[in-house]
């Protein structure tokens, strides 16, 4: 557990266990930038190394927190997000056309964004809020959010548990590799949108004619 010894999150796990896991992941999923995945991985490693926590309960706490937090974020975004963006979005380069493009992309690919966003650091805290802002169908959101929350908690929890102490030797290289993937993936997505923005905007206007409510 040496790689955790200097992190405050280790004290949270040792002192509050499942409650800390549930609280931090719930808040992160609702849109608060907290280390939800870090506490899941750290808790699973702690359980595998010491036996002081139960892996099944860690996964249950993490999956439940992810689903509940995402639902909170979704309904906050659905209720208040679009009015705020329609009024102030131009300040962050989100004009009416780009807001409509966001709705179009969520209409076409919203389920995939919600599911895979759970595994992506850049999207984990905001995918649910964005789904609400962009009016992804609530039933579709519930299905993909539930699947994503359970899959994420299970894969990360089980993988980290069985890595045990060896995680300290691979966490750094894996983290750097994932960071590189995220950076290059984000750059590729930005370049694609920039290159095809006019066509995508036209498709969005055709699919969602008129002003956004």
Structure description:
Helix 1 crosses helix 2 (18-29) and helix 5 (96-117) crosses helix 8 (138-163). The N and C termini lie far apart (52 Å). The protein is elongated, with a radius of gyration of 19 Å. It contains nine helices and no strands. With 213 residues, the protein is mostly helical.
What's the helix and strand layout?
Layout: H1 8-16, H2 18-29, H3 36-50, H4 55-88, H5 96-117, H6 121-124, H7 127-133, H8 138-163, H9 167-207
Largest sheet: none
Structural class: mainly alpha
Could you name the ranges where pLDDT drops below 50 across 5 or more consecutive residues?
A: 1-6
**Proportion of residues in helical segments:** over 70%
Shape: elongated
Rg (C-alpha, Å): 19 Å
Please report the number of helical segments.
Answer: 9
What's the mean pLDDT score?
76
Quick structural gist:
Helices cover 80% and strands 0% of the residues. The chain has nine helices and no strands.
Spell out the key features of this protein:
single chain; 213 residues; mainly alpha; 9 helices; disordered N terminus
């Amino acid at each position: 557990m040496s790689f955790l010894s200097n992190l405050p999150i280790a004290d949270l796990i040792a002192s509050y266990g499942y409650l800390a896991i549930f609280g931090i992941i719930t808040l992160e999923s609702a849109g608060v930038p907290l280390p939800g995945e870090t506490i899941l991985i750290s808790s699973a490693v702690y359980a595998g190394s010491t036996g002081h926590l139960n892996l099944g309960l860690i996964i249950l706490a993490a999956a439940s927190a992810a689903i509940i937090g995402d639902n909170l974020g979704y309904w906050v975004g659905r209720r208040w997000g679009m009015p705020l963006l329609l009024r102030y979005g131009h300040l962050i380069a989100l004009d009416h056309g780009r807001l409509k493009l966001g709705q179009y992309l969520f209409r076409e690919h919203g389920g995939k964004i919600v599911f895979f966003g759970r595994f992506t650091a850049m999207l984990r805290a905001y995918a649910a809020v964005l789904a609400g802002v962009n009016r992804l169908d609530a039933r579709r959101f519930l299905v993909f959010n539930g699947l994503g929350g359970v899959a994420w908690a299970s894969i990360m929890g089980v993988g980290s548990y069985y890595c045990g102490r060896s995680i300290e030797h691979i966490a750094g290289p894996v983290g750097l590799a994932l960071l590189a993937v995220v950076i290059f993936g984000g750059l590729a997505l930005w370049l694609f949108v920039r290159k095809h923005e006019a066509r995508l905007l036209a498709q969005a206007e055709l699919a969602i004619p008129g002003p956004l409510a």
